[in-house]
Amino acid sequence: MEIIDFIDLNYDFANTTHMGLLGFSYGAGIGAILQAIDQRINTVVLYHPLTSLDSLMERIPIQNLIGTTPTVTNLDNIQDAFDIANVNNTKNLLLLQGASDIIILPEVTENFYYHINGNNRSDIAFKLRPGKGHEGNENDINSLKYSIVWFKYFYYDSSINISDLDNEINAITLFNFNYPKSNISEIFIIISSIFLFVGLSLLVIKFKILPFWYKLPIKRISDDSREGKEKYKKMMIFRTISYIGTILITGMIFSAFNRSLLYGYFIFFPVLTIIIMLFIPSELHSNWKAEWRNWIKNDSVPFAYCFSIIIITFHYFLIFYNLSASLTLSFTIPIFSIASLPYFMVGLGSVIMDYLFLREIKGRHALILIFIRPISILIFLGFVPLPPFPILGGVFTHIMFIILTGVIIYYIRHLVLMLSKFYKNSFSLYFLVMVPFIIFYMRVFFRII
């Protein structure tokens, strides 16, 4: 509506009393609502619109996955197109639905068609596209032709018979237009980012990190004295109890105030655990202050150099990727937005928490992570149940997620330890491993979170 207001105020040639609207999926669901509340929208074509949140949440139960946010305090209070659109405020609407769509089910779109009494009206039509899925419907040439015919009829050619769209689309001829693809530019940006990272790494490791590292005193790997073994045992016990204790506290808090796996397990739990783990030193240090003074003195410099390499590389990638995306009308990665903060906290919180939990723990004992991670998830799910997602594989996927979480993070740690032999630092390398995943998920799932 604000866009129409802007056009109305700034462009005299535009007739804002008869606007057209074309929407896809989530955007089509919003379009179904907008056309009902703003009568300046005269003609509408919606591809598989998300008209029913209840239907979506039956297959993707996001209630306890995301919970409440600052902008959405209760998912049950959100109104969808079934709540807002009706017979009296809907007109000139074409619904295009893939018969094989598993994201927006055909029967839901058909029910919406009947909800607005489309079967008894000539200005509302529903076309079921045989063999077309969600993306297939959007890319289908005939679906595009249906859209063109619909807009042509309501704007400048009333002789078109919209009750016989299958015949009318034969008169539509499309020009072959090879729109520039972004794949090649994306590939070159990724390759150049890798070269930049390797080049910076070779220079910084050789001229900065290694010269500093060779000047440091030899570090003790472990304390094999009787006293040292007792301190190591206490450290393992304290850290394990703290790990389990924080998930119990987190579960109780979020079961009462915000039933959210995202904000509870992947954000609050890691942040709380990180704070506690900072104060549980290894047997090599007399207390937590001594441990972190030693880290600042000996490890902060390699960390700063390594972290700088990562930051420079990823800023380079993001700047040029977003430039390419904007030029080719593709999706940008809004990483410099405040809305990206949950992604970073989800991506980095867990690995930093587990890094602090496992720091200076002997290799064979690090296997505890494979067991303690699934236990922590099960404890949290005991407080905030999350039903399996039928659309993502159901119970099997649910179980594999629980079992493999600890395994994945365990092997991420092994990868980091291998790389740390060159960079003389492991903490910053978690950023190197996880930031690509964060960027990928922001590229794909930004709208959802």
Tell me the strand percentage band. 5-15%
- Give me the secondary-structure category: mainly alpha
Q: What's the pLDDT, averaged over the residues?
A: 88
For the record, give the distance between the C-alpha atoms at the N and C termini, rounded to a whole number.
Answer: 23 Å
Q: How many strands appear in the DSSP assignment?
A: 4
How do the strands of the widest beta sheet line up side by side? 1-2-3-4
What low-confidence regions span 5 or more consecutive residues with pLDDT below 50? none
Helix content: 55-70%
Q: Count helical runs.
A: 18
| Rg on CA atoms, Å | 28 Å
Largest sheet: 4 strands, parallel
Number of domains: 2
Broad shape? elongated
The helix/strand series, from N terminus to C terminus, equals HEHEHHHEHEHHHHHHHHHHHH
Can you walk me through this structure?
It is a single chain. It is elongated and about 95 Å long. With 449 residues, the protein is mainly α. The protein starts with a helix and ends with a helix. It folds into two domains: 2-171, Alpha/Beta hydrolase fold, catalytic domain (Rossmann fold), CATH 3.40.50.1820; 183-445, no CATH class. The longest helix has 32 residues, at 183-214. It has a four-stranded parallel beta sheet with strand order 1-2-3-4, sandwiched between helices. Helix 14 (300-327) runs parallel beside helix 18 (427-445). Helices cover 61% and strands 6% of the residues. Strand 1, helix 2 (25-37) and strand 2 form a beta-alpha-beta unit. The protein has 18 helices and four strands.
